[in-house]
Design brief:
Residues 1-22 are annotated as: Disordered. This protein is globular. The chain has helices spanning 97-104, 133-144; strands at 3-4, 11-17, 23-30, 40-48, 52-59, 70-75, 78-83, 85-86, 92-94, 112-119, 122-129. The chain is built from two helices and eleven strands, in the order βββββββββαββα. It has 146 residues and is mostly beta strands. The chain has one domain: Immunoglobulin-like (Sandwich). Helix content is 14%, strand content 46%.
Length: 146
């Protein structure tokens, strides 16, 4: 069962163990349903030992496995565009390493981000609240290196 983080918003989810018995850990946040398309599920920040972090946007229905969706993230007027890669199963668009740097840095002080995904005319958009991210991120990182 997911454990509630510092607010009711972030959930800490353990992942499967690797061959050394170390588990990936992620924190997830559901998109603001009043300001998002129904296809926008939320944001996942995952840490895998030895502390590698990646950011993914979760959607339904899934994207085709070889899709390379364009993802624009606007945080307080600072819009960044990324080429994502689709995770196995198609419901997560994994962003490049630069997005992990945003989650560890500038996003820690923001209330929300606006996300827009475009893949060959399929457009999904929404807002994701970031309140409570600093303690949730710190707990995820601490559990990641245990």
């Amino acid at each position: 069962m997911p454990k509630s983080m510092s607010g009711p918003s972030w959930k800490l989810l353990p992942g499967p163990a690797d061959q050394q018995g170390r588990s990936a850990v992620s924190i997830t946040r559901i998109a603001d349903t009043q300001n998002s398309d129904p296809e926008m599920v939320g944001l996942m920040i995952r840490c895998s030992p030895p502390g590698l972090v990646e950011v993914a946007v979760v959607v339904v229905p899934p994207f085709a496995p070889k899709s390379r969706p364009s993802v624009a993230i606007d945080s307080s007027g600072d819009a960044r565009r990324f080429e994502g890669r689709v995770a196995p199963g198609g419901t997560a668009v994994i962003l490049p390493d630069a997005a992990a740097g945003l989650a560890a840095g500038p996003w820690q002080n923001l209330d929300r981000v606006t996300v827009k995904i475009d893949d060959n005319g399929r457009r999904i958009g929404g807002q994701i609240e970031l309140d409570g991210l600093p303690p949730a991120y710190a707990e995820m990182k601490a559990k990641c290196v245990e």
